[in-house]
Amino acid sequence: MAFGLYIHIPYCHAKCRYCDFYSQGASRQVPQEYVQALLREMEDLPRPHTLYLGGGTPSLLSPRQVSDLIEKANPLPGSEITLEANPETLSPALLKGFREAGVNRLSIGVQTAYDSQLKVLGRLHTAAQARECFDWARAAGFENISGDIMMALPGYTREEFQATLDLIVQGGATHISAYLLKIEPGTAFGRKPPAHLPDEDQAADFYLEAVVQLEALGYHQYEISNFARPGFEGQHNLIYWNCEDYLGLGPAAHSCMGGKRFYWPSSTQSFIEGSVCPTEDGICGGWDYIILRLRLVQGLDLALLKERYGMEFSSRQMAFLRQCVQAGYARLENGVLALTPRGMIIQNTILTQLME
Ligand code: SF4
Predict the structure, then answer these.
(1) Interhelix angle for 63-73 vs 32-41, to 10°?
(2) Per residue in 9-57, pLDDT tens?
(3) What is the pLDDT of residue 356?
(4) 175-180 and 226-228 as β-strands: parallel, antiparallel, unpaired?
(5) By the 8 A CB rule, do 246 and 240 touch?
(6) Whole-model pTM above 0.90?
(7) Which ligand 1 atom minimizes the distance to the CA of 14?
(8) Ligand 1 site, residue 55, Cβ cutoff 6 A
C-alpha cells in the first residue's frame, strides 16, 4: 500500500476572498520555528511514496527550508514531490532553488487569466505573472507542472475560460485542475457573495464544456476536477482517492493511517509549541471508499469493494444504479461502476439516494 506525506504551510500573502483553507494572511515568509515544529513531528516516519507541500502558500518557504523538509521526509526513490506555488511569490532563482532542493512537481495557482477577476478573488498576482512562472519553471527544469483553473466565477464567460486554458496550455502544463467556485461559509465571499454568479445550470455547462475541451487538448479526465497528459496524473491525490495511507502534518492537516482518521487542531501556535496532539476522527469504511472511488473516472470495482470492506449493493441499490446508467449519469461495465461527467456534477445527489 502506498504512503503519502502531506505538509501543510499555513501562511499566505493575503487571504483570498473565496478561501476556507486554514492559513493566515499577511505573511511574507514561513517562520523557521514552524519548519522546526514540522521537522520535530517527522521523526521516525515511514519513507513516503509521495510528498506534497500544500497550503496556504508553500512557495513562501525558502529553498533551504524545502530542502530540510525533503531531506527529513526521505521519500522513496522516484517519489513525486509536489509544491504548491502562487505566482506573486515566485522568481527564476526561487524556482531553481526548489528544483535543486528536490521538488519535481509544481502546482501553480493561476485561477483565471483576467486581471480584473483576480482582483475580485483577492488574488495578488496578475495573469502576466502567472504566464511568466510557467516559463521560469520549465527553465528551472520542471517537467511536471500543474495549473489550477477556477470556473463559474462572477460574470463568467466562455472567453474567460478559454483565455485561462490558453495561458496554462501554452505554459506547458502536464496537468490541470479545473474547479467550480464554491461559496464557503466563513469566507469573505460567504459573508458577502459577489454579484453575477452563474447559477447551478450555467456552472454545470461550464464544467461539461471544460471536460470536452481538455480531452480534445490531450488532458484526460481522471478525477472530477483533475485532468492530465498520460502518465502525469497526480500520484499524491490518488493515494487519497484510493483510500491508501496518508499522514498530514501541520494545523488542520488530516490523516488516515490503517483506516483510522485523525487531524491536527487548527492552531499554528499550538502546533509550533507542541502543546496539541492529533484528534481522532473515526474510521474510514466502505462508504468512504465508494465516495472517493466514484470521484475517479476509473470508478469503483464492485468485487474489490467486497474484498476490502465486505460490502455489496442491495438489489434496490443496483436497480437505482441501473437507472443512473440509463439516464447517462453512470457506467456499469464488467463489475465496475463509474460516473460520467454529467453524473459527477450531481455526485452528491446520486450518493444520497444510494445510501438511503
Ligand atoms: S486560496 Fe491559496 S493563496 Fe489564497 S488564501 Fe487560500 S491558501 Fe492562501
Answers:
(1) 10
(2) 999 999 999 999 999 998 899 999 999 999 999 999 999 999 999 999 9
(3) 86
(4) antiparallel
(5) yes
(6) yes
(7) 5
(8) yes
CB 102 less than 6 A from any atom of ligand 1: no
Binding site membership of 10 for ligand 1 (Cβ less than 6 Å): no
In the chain, which residues fall in CATH 3.20.20.70? 3-239
pLDDT for residue 149: 98
Atom 4 (ligand 1) nearest CA = 16
For residue 56, the ligand 1 atom closest to its alpha carbon is: 7
pLDDT at 214: 98
pLDDT digits (tens, 9 = 90+) for 151-171: 999 999 999 999 999 999 999
DSSP H helical ranges for the chain: 32-41, 63-73, 92-101, 115-121, 127-139, 158-170, 188-191, 200-216, 235-241, 268-273, 286-293, 302-309, 315-326, 341-345, 347-355
CATH homologous superfamily, domain 3-239? Aldolase class I (3.20.20.70)
Q: Is the distance from the beta carbon of residue 187 to the nearest atom of ligand 1 less than 6 Å? A: no
Residue nearest to atom 6 of ligand 1 (CA): 19
Q: Does position 1 have pLDDT exceeding 90, yes or no? A: no
